[in-house]
Amino acid sequence: MHVHEIAHPLVKHKLGLLRQRSLSTRSFRQLTAEVASLLTYEATSDLLLEDYQVDTWMGPVPAQRIKGKKVTVVPILRAGIGMLDGVLELIPSAKVSVVGLYRNEETLEPVAYFEKLAHGLEERLALVIDPMLATGGSMVATIDMLKKAGCSQIRALVLVAAPEGIRRVHEAHPDVTLYTASVDKGLNEDGYIVPGLGDAGDKIFGTK
Ligand code: PRP
Ligand code: URA
């Protein structure tokens, strides 16, 4: 799996702010959306273009537009929803495919509870969004679902990734590309990313 750890100064700056111990729900949400936009910018930098003529005030002018069926964004419930607005800000016409998974806190294995995917996945690029790639179980299960539904172009966008999760996704799906603001040190005994962000879902939703 190819891993892009985005070194853009805005990404690094915002990630530092996200790691602050006492950050309001509002600020965590806002920064999550902003970093999601920046990751989207990077993850779409090689989309194919096609030529066309745009009708302008002075007649037809050559222009370019994104070729083929548009993207589907795949938020993993619940925390992935926190990145959705940031992605849609740049790709407002994207179809949204929602996947519901939570981690069993003892086994750390993902439990699926919802799946509503966009049509025409065979022709779409899927951008899977989830703030945290920890053991990688949730990401692998989501990619399994997408591939089963015919999707073959998949990119994962996460705020923070653990090396353990990267290895697991790589073993199961080496064709997937990962975009992240940081590859952190690793997981603690509870399966939390160190230093990570703590519980991203709770911080985005203001629960706990
Ligand atoms: C978190 C996070 C990922 C998953 C990552 O979700 O948002 O989906 O854990 O862990 P993994 O890589 O080990 O699978 P959580 O289960 O806390 O649910 P939530 O999004 O509903 O808060
Ligand atoms: N889920 C989170 O929200 N944080 C982690 O560090 C791991 C899983």
Automatic annotation (TrEMBL):
The keyword Nucleotide-binding applies. Its EC number is 2.4.2.9. Coiled coil: none annotated. Pathway: Pyrimidine metabolism; UMP biosynthesis via salvage pathway; UMP from uracil: step 1/1. Binds 1 Mg(2+) ion per subunit. The magnesium is bound as Mg-PRPP. InterPro entries: PRTase-like (IPR029057), PRTase_dom (IPR000836), Upp_B (IPR034332), UPRT (IPR005765), UPRTase/APRTase (IPR050054). One of its GO terms (molecular function) is glycosyltransferase activity. Allosterically activated by GTP. 5-phospho-alpha-D-ribose 1-diphosphate binds at residues 78, 103, 130-138, 199. Gene3D superfamilies: 3.40.50.2020. Keywords: Allosteric enzyme, Glycosyltransferase, GTP-binding, Magnesium, Nucleotide-binding, Transferase. It comes from the Bacteria. It is an enzyme of class 2 (transferase). Uracil binds at residues 193, 198-200. It catalyses: UMP + diphosphate = 5-phospho-alpha-D-ribose 1-diphosphate + uracil. Residues 7-207 form the Phosphoribosyltransferase domain. Its cofactor is Mg(2+). Catalyzes the conversion of uracil and 5-phospho-alpha-D-ribose 1-diphosphate (PRPP) to UMP and diphosphate. Belongs to the UPRTase family. This is Uracil phosphoribosyltransferase. It comes from Alloalcanivorax venustensis ISO4. The gene is upp.
